[in-house]
Design a protein that fits this description.
alpha/beta, Rossmann fold, globular, 8 helices, single chain, 7 strands
């Protein structure tokens, strides 16, 4: 059993596969007894992932800034296992990262992109030994993967760091790789600590 942080859009997007995949991610996490940690909203893909996990009997933890509730930017999900209301986006991201064993980005906007890139950066910097994955639904993350590969070619990103990022098209494969990579990263960190 693991706790996975899911980053995804507060909208559902234009491709019906985004919605289908979000449903499958929530259901898969619950069926495999994994806990979902996410942004706490009931809208968009993030609401869909939470709804599906809850419907399948899963544990769902939401983290939402108080500002978003007050200004109704994101409507807090009323039926979560746990809902943590925090003071800022920084606190939200820190809380999500501290609870998670790994990070999975579904399609989303600039917030989703910023969150998964920050988590990936923290892995590379050694701030945490937690793997990151992109769920590349219908090629959604192809431009990002191309950009990262170009960073490698141009000397701004090491190939071994780039290789740490999991890119999968199917939820079950992404989740399985996250769990496998988590075990290996923790082992590596423990070896380095000796």
């Amino acid at each position: 059993m693991a706790t996975l942080c899911i980053y995804c859009g507060s909208n559902v997007g234009s491709d019906p596969r985004f919605l289908e995949t979000a449903r499958l991610v929530g259901k898969t996490l619950a069926e495999k007894n994994h806990t979902l940690v996410y942004g706490g909203g009931k809208v968009g893909l993030m609401g869909v992932v939470a709804d599906e996990a809850l419907a399948a009997g899963g544990k769902v933890i939401g983290i939402i800034p108080e500002l978003f509730i007050r200004e109704e930017r994101e409507i807090a999900h009323p039926g979560l296992t746990e809902l943590h209301i925090v003071d800022s986006m920084h606190e939200r991201k820190h809380k999500m990262a501290s609870l998670a064993d790994g990070f999975l980005a579904l399609p989303g906007g600039i917030g989703t992109l910023e969150e998964i890139i920050e988590a990936f950066t923290w892995t590379q910097l050694g701030i945490h030994p937690k793997p990151c994955a992109l769920l590349n639904v219908n090629g959604f993350y192809d431009p990002l993967v191309t950009l990262l590969a170009d960073m490698v070619k141009k000397g701004f990103l090491h190939q071994d760091q780039f290789s740490q990022l999991i890119v999968e098209e199917e939820p079950e494969a992404a989740i399985a790789q996250l769990l496998d990579r988590k075990t290996r990263l923790i082992s590596k960190w423990m070896d380095l600590a000796k």
